Amino acid sequence: MNANNTTDASEQITTCIITEDPLAAKVCKTLAYCLLLVVSLLLNTLIIMVVYRDDKMKTTTNLLIVNMAVSDLLVPIFAMPRANVEILYGNLRWLIDGVFGEALCKLTAFFQDISTAVSVQTLVAIAVDRFYAVWFPLKAARIKPRVKYVILLIWFISTLIHAPYLYGFQIGTFSGETYCYLGWPRSVTKTVFLLLIIIIYVIPLGLITTLYSLIVKKLRKQTLYGVRNLVVHFSREKRNRNILKMSLAIVVVFFLSMSPFVVYLSIAIFSPEGTVCPSKDFRFVTQYLVHCNGALNFFTYFTFNQSYRRGFLAILSRICCSCASLCRWRQEVDVTSHLGQESYAVSVVTVNSGMDFDNKDVELTRVRSLENIEHEVVENGQINNGHVEHDIYS
What transmembrane ranges does the database entry give (predicted)? Predict the structure, then answer.
């Protein structure tokens, strides 16, 4: 590292180092991140499981949502542990040195930012999918077989965008302490950050806003002229509107959680010679909001999509119920005989409707009893057994 880079790195590390938080503040912030880490891992895993276990859920939009959930898993794995280290030991601090420590520094920065790039591009892909579903419904069916290539392209582009991180991030020792930092000159850092903001924030936001505006315009037009063909258009229009609400909610949550951190980075990077430093608490809040996005998506799906609600509850019920008899939709009918001579056959049939948003679960339990065997009646030399049948609908 030459002298100029050493000076830039030293300024980057020392300029905005503020006095350490009190112990109570450190404990609270650390616990907040530990809780968020566990919740993010569980909720994003749950999203993936819901779509994986139900073939009817494997639509284009849901597969893209799974892709976003996979990218969100990178945040609790890479970003949150690093955030906890900085809370406890200071800004940009790194606890592992040597070749392994530097490799881990590069990969951590790379994966935590690639998660954001993947999420943004996935939101654009969802908007494009919804646009085709509303404007060109016949062509929309051709997109699903190609969604895996779209997902691969998203990860490839995100990797290219952040590949320079693998070169730029490095570790260094200052005053006996190890730091993980971006080793570029300040002028290069400003240029790279500006390009990233345009590519990851400004352009996607513009595309998404344009596409959803066209979708809303088309749906309003369908409402005006759809009365003449109500039976044909009602189901598709309702489905499009429901998915549109959920998609818009995801976009709004993402950009609202992202925007404060963009403001923080802009102040920190573009202030003259790094002399203006935002408060440490402001940095924590903005960064925490970004990391919350993955967990907030779960509640968005749960609120706006009945299929996700049903899937979430079905999985949670299997986890929480120690045996099937405790589950309310898997009740067993246990009838015991006073004479010890009865035998029962119990069969449970679950009927699921094919609607995506208005599924109904109906369970039919039929109990056939050979009770009262003593009432056998002999007629014409044959024995007729008395049967008692009960149909129970739950």
Answer: 30-52, 150-172, 192-215, 246-270
